[in-house]
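Form P-L/3: holo structure prediction, ligand adenosine-5'-triphosphate.
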Amino acid sequence: MSGVRIDGLVKQWGTFRAVDGVTFDAPEGTLTVLLGPSGCGKSTILRMIAGLETVDGGQVTIAGQDVTRQDAAKRGVSMVFQSYALFPHLDVRENILFGLKVRRVARDERDRRLADAARMVGLTDLLDRKPAALSGGQRQRVALARTIVANQPVCLMDEPLSNLDAKLRAEMRDEIHALQRALGLTMVYVTHDQTEAMSMADQVVLLKDGRIEQIGPPADLYERPATVFAAQFLGMPPMNVLPLADLDPAAAVPRVAPGAPDAGAGWSLGVRPEKVVLAPGGLAVEVAAVDYMGAETVLRLRHGPLALMARVDGRAEARPGDRVAVSWAAEDLHLFDDTGIRRSGPAAAPPKPG
Ligand SMILES: Nc1ncnc2c1ncn2[C@@H]1O[C@H](COP(=O)(O)OP(=O)(O)OP(=O)(O)O)[C@@H](O)[C@H]1O
Ligand SMILES: [Mg+2]
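OUTPUT (holo model):
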């Protein structure tokens, strides 16, 4: 049993609460992604799980044991840091094996794990180099290899791919995911990259200002975002969120936002760009720009003061300056109240926690 649970976790710097009562379960053998904008508390939570940061409130449980005050070394976790701390005077091989030597793992076992890990992250030919002679991406892979050889049941990763180019990033993402499943690791993975979160996570914990905004499988967050923040954090381009009060009265709120209260009452409508269709009789818009990307085209549209986007397959006929109308199916419409909480739409989500 190697699940991780945190309960009402708090971290305070002076009067500032960087982590403000965070509770979630990372079940054994699953991958939990902590997602959120810079400064929302992701690294701080991870460091408290690892035992590298003191806890100001709440509890950390690993494998059923309360480890809140326990020494980091005794928690059975390995960690990849956001700033992959390598020893400059040791070569790649020694950097990877450092922890195993400290723990007196037998030499042939060490060599076997080293060979496996180095092959996995593509460092086999660089084992004799010092960190100064490596690129940022190669250093990051040394840090990853160090975690792989540690063989701990709980693995914590803090933006482990941030310094890699797009292609290597996608490859390493698959490798880490495959490794996590093959070894049955309990992994808590920090990123602010929604693609990583969507493609890897069994469960996403979306954070904002030290609190949980929404928690659930990626598809839940995408299809049934609890709030405007969640709706706009996931999705590329993000969900269109239009305050009903800013719509041209001629747009007739009941037509484009059926189910909204009269006159909007501070509510907004939300619709994903890929659900927006060009069709007569909808919301009148002007085409501001056409971004052709090959497989798809993103149309940047304006409705009075409001900007919105439509994503269509392939090449679109529209040109800047065109006046067209857009609409969406009733089942693709989300309605958010004046506090930003989603009140209706595809199977309205339960109220946000906390
Ligand atoms: N040692 C510290 N002293 C004071 N404030 C701190 C300290 N460490 C972190 N903070 C603050 O706590 C908040 C959370 O920081 P944290 O590093 O957890 O954010 P993050 O979500 O990992 O961000 P990023 O995506 O930029 O890495 C930030 O506002 C940060 O400035
Ligand atoms: Mg961080």
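COMMENT: Residues 42-43, 82, 158 surround magnesium ion (ligand 2) (CB under 6 Å).
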